[in-house]
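Table 4 source record.
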Amino acid sequence: MGEDMKQVVDTFSVATMVGTIAGLLPALAALLTVVWTAIRIWETDTVQDLFSKRRKRDKKGRFVKEDD
């Protein structure tokens, strides 16, 4: 999934979260939003640095194998 598509999904995720808090959407939508947001937060460089599990990425953002 490209960064542009991730940003679109992030936007819908936030809108879903706001709608859920307002009581407009079912609990399943809230659960999926929480899962998606947690995944996106886990992917950030800051969190990866905190847990020392950051992996190298190439210029396109894909993970690369580390040399032995």
